[in-house]
Amino acid sequence: MPSSEPSTDVVVERTLIQSSATSTFPTISRTLADVREEVAQSLALRMITKARTVDGVRIGVHFTFSKKDDGRFLRLITSHIRARLPSSRYLFAIATTGSSPTGRDTRDRARTSNALVICGSDEDDVQRAVLLASSKFLGRVDAVQNTGTLLAASVRHIGSSYDDAALWDVLSKSVRTPIDPLLPPPGSRSIDQLLSDARSKLERMTPPQAYDALHDPTYPMPVFLVDIRPASQRAREGGIHGSLIIERNVLEWRFDPRCEARLAIADRYDLKIIIYCQEGYTSSLAAASLHELGLLNATDIVGGFAAWRAAGLPGQIKPPSTISDEESYQISQPSFDSDDVIDGI
After folding, report:
1. Are strands 4-5 and 150-156 parallel, antiparallel or unpaired?
2. What SMART domains does the entry give (predicted)?
């Protein structure tokens, strides 16, 4: 959940109380509108101060808690941003996260939408942001008002960590300077770099090492051999009976202990998951992905199935030590396919 400011209404109330408590001389009374103006100025200054710079453009995302969904207050903030950056290029997103609908008022309980405003100095930047944002909040946008350099929208349940990351991504991509399509964008990595980075996280195993670990009754954690190759490749090249057949497109769902679609055996984070593909490239990327889920013992076989076969190792292994012979789930059979269990993930 992104960090958010105290309720705008609370800030206003505090400001009014502090003003009356510290006044020792007769002054002109301040109205609620005056205080909201002051708070809007403060938030605008804070956003400008904390803004990031992408290709010379200031960008920022801010969530502010509000008891009532006040789109007009967000527009007030944008007017102060515009006043303070008259000649600068910028793009900001501001949203109210609102409060949980726990009040007695029926309208309060029914409200699920909050205000989102995207403002910028360049109309093209804002319109690019509009297009990108529409794909980030599919099915959640209730109303939109687009005036060129300002988008005001009503979005359901906004304020999660996903929304924060999504808005930063929208703003960053919207202000990027067009580049030569034949040149790699800044920050991108080649597949060789991705593979190298993935393997730096792994304790890769040779085929004999993997075979020994799979048959070592004293190994300190459960060990599983996983074949992630597609069915056509398994049919053409053969495989290792006793390995779990979990194709690459569902691997993370099957081994994440937090996922409802996980395998029954994926109920702990210390599993030794040894992945193999045909030659040991895709398997490295797959194992590194499992590390991201917290499965830090996941690894792969150097050279893949081709190296296993070249080493003259048996084409069959014992079932995993945690599964009895009677309850092997047919994991040694090529016909078992995790796609048959849950489809469409």
Report:
1. unpaired
2. RHOD
